[in-house]
Amino acid sequence: MATSVMGDNLHRIVPRMSQSQTNLALHPSSCGETTPPRPTPPHDRQLFVPILPARFPRLAYLLTPVIPPKCLVCHRALRPVFPLTPLLCRRCTPSHALIRDPHTLCPECGLTLMTGSCERCFLFPLPFSSVGAPFPYRGAVRDLVRAMKYTPSRKLAKLVAQTMARAIDYEYYAAAESPTLRPPWNLVVPIPSGPHSTKRRLFTPAFIAAREIARTLSLPLSASALTVNRTRSLQASLLSTNERFRNSHGAFTAHLGSVKGKHILLIDDVITTGATIAAAAKVLFQAGATTIAVRAFAVSDRYERTRAELYRFVERSVAKRKGDPQ
């Protein structure tokens, strides 16, 4: 009877715990083992958990009558729960149904497959080895990212970073046959923010995510490999796709000694049209990078529309050349 009650309580507590605490609770005998338990796939474990462990949980819980917790997105009051209080309300927490199924996506461009193979990558291949993001940029995910960037909130940035690290960890460890499989990268590089954005937020979302991912995957991190060499307008203030590509052109400089011969994992928060990651990849390849893979927290529908426009443009150009007399 005691075991049954304890098991029921454990399943109530697990969703409120961090990943390390969850592994310890679900695998109590792993303390004496030499190898840690392998993580479970995303359909068995929550990929997005809106909870961060407090440094002093008892003190934070005792101060809740004085400083009541609020949702960091909509600012509604939250019910304090010891020892961990969620950062988001249920309405602002991204649903697990939003998680993109990697089996329906192209492994190279990260978009939905139109047929058995990606015709867009065949006709107009990207310079990246792969592009991926666990969430689409809509609904609660869009509200969370906007609150993180424009409120701004370092706690939300850390929450996004942990979600990205967990998604990449699942991608290369949980589905692997061998637990010793290593990621195909040897350097993590974040997309740098402009000086005005960094001064206003006091942090760079991509750097916080890259630091968490590098720590999770035991990879080196280089924050100076990619730098902003000029002040540019905010991408969010530009509506046209052409304006975004022109604004990103020549905006970055890569450090030759840091990236030469490296397989780079490029980190961004949101992929909107692909202009920023394209400009960053161009200078990284010019500095000697071998391969570049892109990972972000969310991908916008505009990215798919941009790829579709380029696909139709190249398709028309190929058809016109075939129709021209030699």
Order of helices and strands: HHHHEEHHEHHEHEHEHEH
Shape type: globular
Percent helix range: 40-55%
Low-confidence stretches: 1-44
Task: Tell me the span between the first and last alpha carbons.
Answer: 85 Å
Quaternary structure annotation: single chain
Biggest sheet statistics: 5 strands, parallel
Strand count: 7
Number of helices: 12
Q: Estimate the mean pLDDT confidence.
A: 78
**Structural class by SSE content:** alpha/beta
Radius of gyration: 22 Å
* Strand content range: 5-15%
Task: Report on the architecture of this protein.
It is a single chain. This protein has 326 residues and is of the alpha/beta class. The protein has helices at 2-13, 19-26, 57-62, 119-123, 139-150, 154-174, 195-201, 205-217, 241-248, 256-259, 275-286, 301-323, and strands spanning 130-132, 135-136, 187-190, 226-228, 252-254, 263-271, 291-299. Strands 1, 2, 3, 6 and 7 form a five-stranded parallel sheet that branches. Strand 6, helix 11 and strand 7 form a beta-alpha-beta unit. The longest helix is centred in the C-terminal third of the chain and has 23 residues, at 301-323. The chain starts with a helix and ends with a helix.
